[in-house]
Amino acid sequence: MCGIVGYVGHRQALDVVVDGLRRLEYRGYDSAGVAVVTGPGTLAVERKAGRLANLENRLDEVGRGEFAGTAGMGHTRWATHGPPVDRNAHPHRDATGRVAVVHNGIIENFAALRAELEADGVELTSDTDTETVAHLVGRAYAEGPTKGDLPASLRAVCHRLSGAFTLVVTHVDEPDMIVAARRSSPLVVGVGEGETFVASDVAAFIEYTRDAVELGQDQVITIDRDGYLVTDFDGEEAQTRPFHVDWDLSAAEKGGHEYFMLKEIEEQPTALADTLRGHFVDGRIVLDEQRMTDQDLRDVDKVFVVACGSAYHSGLVAKYAIEHWTRLPVEVELASEFRYRDPVLDRATLVVAVSQSGETADTLEAVRHARDQKARVLAVCNTNGAQIPRESDAVLYTHAGPEIGVASTKAFLAQIAANLMVGLALAQARGTKYSDEVAREFAELAAMPAAVAKVLGTVERVRELGRSLADSKAVLFLGRHVGYPVALEGALKLKELAYMHAEGFAAGELKHGPIALIEEGLPVVIVMPSPKGRAVLHAKMVSNISEIQARGARTIVLAEEGDETVRPFADELIEIPAVPTLLQPLVATVPLQVLSAEIARARGYDVDKPRNLAKSVTVE
Ligand code: F6R
């Protein structure tokens, strides 16, 4: 939530910062702003409510020449404190206008800090928590023990803040440096030739360098064109972890597609293949990082999967496989509920935390709660070095590449694949599957990129169908067994992209209430189990369809190729390849992604940036 970028180097900072913001806009798009040090003693700031395009228009009006300078920073906001209007857009300045601050996170004690400043006669001009930091840093720099020392001033202020924050600060008297601080919210450093970057995500600077450095918790960094210096909040030099980004600019660009999401849907075979690559070595499943012993894995007697949104649905899919393969009980829980209900956790509990961003606040807090209770935590994450994997005992990275569209697509499929590998790793450690069985399951997984590619080759018909549904008031989704989480995911995609009422149900629940919703013409999407793999459920599902068809529903049926039994019950039939039962969600989800995207496009909505949402949710 909120994207921030800072730059010091040899280029015009405004260009670098605006380009960076464009690639971070997925993090928030309520307002955007920039600050550039235009000379000793001068700071040019512009900010505008709405999308980045509004800020760019404003910069053109003012004249970009007014922003000449080689040190600067920018922000794209997802509003927390105060509505998305110009005065609440970042950067915020202190009363002298000499300090500018951008912020991602929430400063929980901001009301007390604000009251203190107001009591001292400071006039605050915004509703934000961030502005208090600008005033505090301005004061710390102007007087007292940290006078004239910007990093020390920021460190002193950090000691006074509670909550989660990444802060980037510039001061007119320090035209060649940018200072930043990090607690819980993300910040990475980009190291180029004669230029240095800080940003919420490497996508902001990938055009210039793929050499990055991951900051730790409670660290302050000073960047200039020659490099960086990192300390803890007490000023002691701190350790950081350099890494090389394994994707390039083309991955962070649309590549001819109208929307990132459409490109990301197409990239799913590659995302799956990249996620599986290198994890089956010498007949064994291997994780990326393991700070727990094999004995710890053998000792696991219960599994929780904790996650939010689509990541949670990926956990629901995996539950069927992990229980089947390991005979361990698996509970899948929304991360936001997990730690508030006192779950029973101990050393033999494995908590699998699934998060694309690796920074979702609810999931991160669930991880912390689990570790406090001595449970082991295994992270499934798409972002190298993010906070959730850093705080976990083991990590399996999904290699979906950057996902810019706010609605998760390729990361979701990659999460399913990774969660299934976690299941196989447990089965192998516990001996509930023989090595040849693990190899067979992995080989079936390895065939899935081709199966997904096949689905993608047939979705034109789904697009047409999507356009025909654009005026519907609501759509229901039904599934059984692994088709149930697919139904939930299909409904979530439709809600978030098309702002259409959508609900996913376990088909067996229909007669316990939801069937009352069925009326003439209501579209109902049904995810059919395989007639061979789950014959009993298939038969039950056929009965469910005929029940709703009898009540006037328009049935849109996703069924395995060659499933003739269901054809008479389908007003619309979408065929998907026959794949092993537990893997069907990987092929069944794809048409539903395409369907939602097309309905949203037909309704005239921005598929990449649905209203009110942001890609990574760093507040609870
Ligand atoms: C839905 C979607 C969200 C995320 C959720 C978790 O399309 O993208 O529901 O899945 O916010 O995000 P991560 O995986 O970053 O923890």
TrEMBL record:
Its main location: cytoplasm. It comes from the Bacteria. Residues 293-432, 465-610 form the SIS domain. GO terms for cellular component: cytosol. It is an enzyme of class 2 (transferase). Signal peptide: none annotated. PROSITE patterns: GATASE_TYPE_2 (PS51278), SIS (PS51464). It is found in: Cytoplasm. Residues 2-226 form the Glutamine amidotransferase type-2 domain. It catalyses: D-fructose 6-phosphate + L-glutamine = D-glucosamine 6-phosphate + L-glutamate. The active site is at 2 (nucleophile), 615 (for fru-6p isomerization activity). Keywords: Aminotransferase, Cytoplasm, Glutamine amidotransferase, Repeat, Transferase. Homodimer. Catalyzes the first step in hexosamine metabolism, converting fructose-6P into glucosamine-6P using glutamine as a nitrogen source. This is Glutamine--fructose-6-phosphate aminotransferase [isomerizing].
